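Review form for a predicted model. The reviewer records the input and the model, then writes brief findings.
Reviewer: anonymous (R2)
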Amino acid sequence: MSATLSNRSSWSLSTWLSIASLTFGSFALISSELLPMAVLTPMAADLGVTEGAAGQAVTLTALFAGVAAPTVALIIGRIDRKLINLALCVLVIASNTAVAFTSDYFVLLTARMLLGIAIGGFFALAGATVVRLVTLEDMGKGMSIVFMGLSAGLVVAPALATLIGETFGWRMAFMTAAGCGLLALLLQSVCLPSVPATSATSLSSLSGLLKRRPVRVGLVVGLLFFGGEVSGFTFMRPYLETNGGLSAASIAPVLLVLGLASLLGSAVAGVFADRMLREGFGATFLMLAIATIGLLAFSSVYVAIFVFAAAWGLAIGAGPVMTQTWMGRSAPDELEGVGGLFLAVIQFGITMGAIAGGIAVDLVGTSAPLYVTATCAILAAVLIATRQVPDGVSQKTASALAPAE
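Model under review:
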């Protein structure tokens, strides 16, 4: 391993600012993706469609994000990654602005497709961009900071969007999201250095990635994690209402604690991802399994619900950082390609998790999706425990991963 990558050093101010600009970009993206959930009722009424039809704005965004993730990596060639990130910020601004001003449902869907492309492209390239800024050995730390923007968006965006929508109308909520995209564009224009491409992704390289065992392990673990998480989280409120006997007012603090814990999980995961990846990864899934089982066993004890919800949040905050770091170390020479595959698997996992949870609720009851979560978490923990940690960067690829200036 090269001396450049084996010696961790303190980040310079410019490095911190560049990572922070990407963090705000992830916040703008996830906030925009979740926005329709917070203003669904007034948006549907204003556009003259059902709430179910309006909800497809979220589904379509996720679908296009999954398709765009590997596709963007294939078509951008050797264009400077800073320019690509700036272009993706422009898509966020354009998408939210179009939604804010349209009265046509199909324009809305088209605009949300653009947002899906931005989400897929950003997170497909995020790992490679972070590595070029901080080196592979600090990838976990860098990705944990970037994913803090995602966790913050999960916590802040729905509540803030609801407040803005109630006060100023749902269109102003989308204009606020466009403003976040504009701020991300400005921050990345100033703070993000030029990130020249070291190689271009091809179909043959994507096919080659699937032949690597650590990559396949990472993809399966990602599928289990995101599918299991979404299955449980989607039906968390109905479970707490039905099995815990909680009111909406009692559930809101629980979900807030869960969201804040996920933010903390993202923040601390980088330390474990960089220094003890397999142990931290396995512990993350065990924590998710134990927390889920705890929620199932102590649904009538309000204090216990808070404790296990906090543990649940820590795990789902740490999971994406751990998984992205594992994937990066599995293919340090093809970071953009493996990032695209990973995000496609995430979107597939989210879709399958929601479907599996819905079927489980209809067939068994509101507790069934949590059993799906626990099972997926245990399987992922066992899979990680029985595999070697990817050895990371080799001499052959070290020079290609030198930090961008």
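Findings: The domain at 14-198 is CATH 1.20.1250.20 (Growth Hormone; Chain: A;).
Further findings: The chain has a mean pLDDT of 83.
Recommendation: see findings above.
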